[in-house]
Amino acid sequence: MEEIPLPNGDVTEGVVRVGDTVRRPVGPHSALVHAVLDHLEAVGFAGAPRFLGIDDQGREVLTFIEGEVAGRPHPSWIADEERLLSLAGLVRALDDAMIDFGFPDIDTETHPDPPGIPPPQQRTFEFIGHRDITPENVVWRDTEAYALIDFDLVRPCSRMLEVQNALMYWAPLSHPRDRDPDQIDLDVPRRCRLFADAYGLSREDRAILIDDLIYGTERSWHLMRDRAERLGGGWARMWDEGVGDQIRRRREWLLVDGPAVTAALLAE
């Protein structure tokens, strides 16, 4: 059967469609990903691919989900508020579905933090989250966020971290220089409030979201540089294309404009 190449992510290459399935390379993360997808199928969550097994080339086999996915350059509809609200509902449904999954004892590849990185913050995790809610990882049907794909970065998460991750791309919480043209003039505080309300984020989580992201951007810069040096491939390409500079600009923007986002999140 014909293999049709699908757009690669920033890191994963060799993703193809074969009939009604998707074939993807496996890696150290795959056991956890497969367990997550099996759980989502068992609880009846429709907004994720189904894991079907491993093919004769050692690739994971997933169901192909029909719909529209934002390619690059991103389409203008990523700025649409109705889509933003729909996405918040899908992410909330996913996170609710993951609560009973717990934190299984599944080995995943970990590496020590690189020298010079700020220490990780002390957190209370609530579930295994998606943590990669980019425009390329959401499947749309009409203007409805129908499914999330590419679960390769699933890891312990909280509701605040999941919403924070989505807002980085969809508000977006980034320096105007690094936004898509249709996102440059958006009312970012308003979009953050709309998403948080539609998701149902607690007031306590809203209060810490921006400060947590400011701290996290510094860790992110060190981690991205380490992966580029250690793993090469897509990580090195992103670093060479300036992702480190984008992370630094995000932090600068958050220090100036972040308080307005927090005020909007907390406004009565």
Structure characteristics:
268 residues; alpha+beta; five-stranded antiparallel sheet; globular
Distance between the termini: 57 Å
Q: Strand order within the widest sheet?
A: 1-2-3-5-4
The profile of the biggest β sheet is:
5 strands, antiparallel
Number of strands: 9
Question: So how many helices?
Answer: 7
Sum up the overall morphology in one term. globular
Uncertain regions spanning at least 5 consecutive residues: none
What is the share of helical residues? 40-55%
**SSE string:** EEEHEEHEEEEHHHHH
Evaluate the radius of gyration: 18 Å
Provide the residue-averaged pLDDT. 95
Class based on secondary structure composition and strand pairing: alpha+beta
Strand content: 5-15%
Folded structure, characterized:
The chain has 268 residues and is α+β, with helices and mostly antiparallel strands. The chain has a domain at 4-63. Helices cover 43% and strands 12% of the residues. The strands form three sheets. Strands 1-2-3-5-4 form a five-stranded antiparallel sheet, with helices on one face. A two-stranded antiparallel ribbon has the order 6-9. Strand 4 and strand 5 (60-63) form a beta hairpin. Helix 5 (203-231) packs across helix 6 and helix 5 runs antiparallel to helix 7 (243-266). The longest helix is centred in the last third of the chain and has 29 residues, at 203-231. The radius of gyration is 18 Å and the shape is globular. The chain starts with a strand and ends with a helix.
Set down the secondary structure blueprint:
Layout: E1 4-5, E2 16-18, E3 21-24, H1 30-42, E4 51-54, E5 60-63, H2 81-98, E6 127-129, E7 138-141, E8 144-148, E9 155-157, H3 159-170, H4 188-199, H5 203-231, H6 233-240, H7 243-266
